[in-house]
């Protein structure tokens, strides 16, 4: 079973690889908001 933390890490890798500027810009957000953005970005990238 995959943990929530592992899922967020996977989302982080997706945004790191596919959009370095988004990754850099969103890295200044508070952690909970940053993870949410990573998740939404990864979802949109996958769909």
UniProtKB/TrEMBL annotation:
Molecular function (GO) terms for this protein are: transferase activity, transferring alkyl or aryl (other than methyl) groups
- What InterPro entries does the annotation carry? Isoprenoid_synthase_dom_sf, Squ/phyt_synthse
User: Gene3D superfamilies this protein is in?
Assistant: Farnesyl Diphosphate Synthase
Protein name from the UniProt record: Squalene/phytoene synthase family protein
Source organism (scientific name):
Aestuariibaculum marinum
């Amino acid at each position: 079973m995959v943990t929530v933390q592992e899922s967020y890490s996977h989302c982080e890798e997706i945004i790191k690889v596919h959009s370095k500027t988004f990754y850099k810009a969103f890295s200044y957000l508070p952690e909970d908001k940053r993870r949410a953005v990573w998740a939404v970005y990864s979802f949109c990238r996958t769909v």
